[in-house]
Specification:
The chain is α/β, with parallel strands linked by helices. It contains 13 helices and eight strands. The strands form two sheets. It has a six-stranded parallel β-sheet with strand order 3-2-1-6-7-8, with helices on both faces. A two-stranded antiparallel ribbon has the order 4-5. Helix 1 packs antiparallel against helix 2. The longest helix has 20 residues.
Length: 270
Amino acid sequence: MHANLLARNSSQAAVAVHRCAARHPRAARSFMRSTTQPASCSTVLTPEVSHLLRTAEAVCFDVDSTFCEDESIDELAAYLGVGEQVAALTAKAMGGTVEFKDALRTRLGVMQPTRAALDAFLRDHPHRVTRGIPELVALLRSRGQEVFLVSGGFRQIIHPLAEALGIPLSHVFANSILFDADGKYAGFDESEFTCRSGGKPAAIRHIKEKYGYDSVVMVGDGATDMEARLEGAASLFIGYGGVVVRKNIAEKADWYIMDIQQLIDALQKH
């Protein structure tokens, strides 16, 4: 019986990956290359995960490469002419191999963004919202489940996105770039939860305490997102690989998805 169940789950996992390959070919190819034992990744929606998702009082989303297809820090860096240097630092930060605050300080130090440059970037680079996100946000809110954005990115970039989707700015936890009187880069606000490693679990604990929530779900693509589950702040961590696949996240997530539609389907399931 156990062998039959394992075979059935392995088959379902393979179907889940191949169904999304047509929609996300690069991410799917990356997933198949990086995962030597696909059955070890939690691509099957279990009853336990379904229950936790459907009964959670709030769902928190990472922004870059999850809520949006952009990796905004990298794209801002490219806009400023230092893209390759900063992309390498971002990969280290998201892979969990360097303290996040140190990586953030180094990246911004290389970038030296001015207020004028950031404003121009926002004009020239509208958000590429991940397909299905507007519908998912509307569905969650119709169910009485609150939506929060918990990101290592920047408020200056995320706030317009939140406003466009009707998410209160009080539900955004992200970093703030500081400027001097002349609009030159003057550091970042080190009091923000998400400027440091362990910041996302801290932000979710704050959300739970402030709003009296018992169960919160975290959805994201990186190590800083998974921390929220490993440290016990989030009841459930859903890894998202529709933009970029990270093998360590795929292996440790409670559920690993490649398409936001999978979340919509799970919530609509009777």
